Amino acid sequence: MTQNSLPDFARVEGGAIAGRYMAQFWQPIAMGSDYPVGKARRIKMLGNFYTLYRGEDERLRLTQDRCPHRGTSLAYGWVEGNSIRCRYHGWKFDGEGKGQHFPAETATYASKICLKTYPVREYLGLVFAFLGQGEAPEFQTFPEADDESFGELIVRAVELPYNFFQRIENDHDEVHAHYTHPQMESYGFKELPWITARETDYGLLSVAKRKEGPTFETHCFMPNVQLREVPLQQDKTQVSLHLAWRVPIDDSTTYSVMVNRVATYDESMRGREANMEDPGEIAARVMSCEISLDEVDPDYPLLPIVQDTVSIGGQGVIADRSSENLGQSDRAIALLRQLWAREMALLERGEPLKRWHRPKDFVFKSEDALSTV
């Protein structure tokens, strides 16, 4: 597959094939803590708007965004019990999306009109939704993230100002760590790794091996989930279990979710993190040449996000892959593209997709993989 023959991985809006493919899988769409009982918000994912709210039974519900009456966003209305009422003309829909009370209409008329609703599930402090057609697939859990023996659970979500597929590719680019993240040298990253990659039952496994120093294994659960260990910015003596989803909000913005298990967390960092500057704002200042990356505090807790935003965003909001020249160090990225291209082609032809699954004998890390630094 030449770079000029690559399908369009980036665009998800307007029924694009990449968006239709992503909609085949459960995706994180919000942080559960942002939705107390009675709270409704408008969210955008895969290029479309939805309304998400929590009823008095504490369950979250996801519906089409616009009221079927005159098209106002339901998120601007209010929650009544487990129902939501539109602010424009008071149309009320129950927790299953059925018309319940239309003040200026008959009960018979109301009973004929329903909202489109979507399956929702809370897991690891996140809100997941299935936005595709038909029956939702089995929900994928991650025992490693559930295991409290790995340490304290820390969950973050940030919006990134560039396309989601660039962020997924970066998850399998081990060489960039030596240049985009120079602080990694203190973790033993003193030589460039040899990269191997292979397709698995769940997606792909890429391995970055060094003659001297740590070996890292990165598991990609298709289409957009990363599971690995990462060096901990807050404490350079340890690594963290790292589980991440990269979800397109639209063609130019990414919802990046990171779940970490940290054995010991530097308590002095908590207060600092609560009051720290947004990483996107710092990255914007760097990319406007107001400051350089070298001027960013090296102890800033989310420094890797700033560094990645500058490097990945530096490709452009949507990267032009037609002029790339991939090398042996890009094996994992090339394989990722091949898997996506194959599955997108199957979907476009209406043929069955590969049934990705986590095998019972799945091993999070081999004996050669990094466990301490």
Automatic annotation (TrEMBL):
Keyword Metal-binding annotated: yes
Protein's GO biological process: methylation
Ranges of residues in domain Rieske: 26-129
One GO molecular-function entry: 2 iron, 2 sulfur cluster binding
InterPro entries named among the record's database cross-references: ARHD_Rieske_2Fe_2S (IPR015881), Cholesterol_7-desaturase (IPR050584), Rieske_2Fe-2S (IPR017941), Rieske_2Fe-2S_sf (IPR036922)
Pfam family of the protein (one): Rieske
This protein's record includes keyword Electron transport: no
Keywords: 2Fe-2S, Iron, Iron-sulfur, Metal-binding, Methyltransferase, Oxidoreductase, Transferase
Name of the protein: 5,5'-dehydrodivanillate O-demethylase
Protein's organism: Sphingobium subterraneum
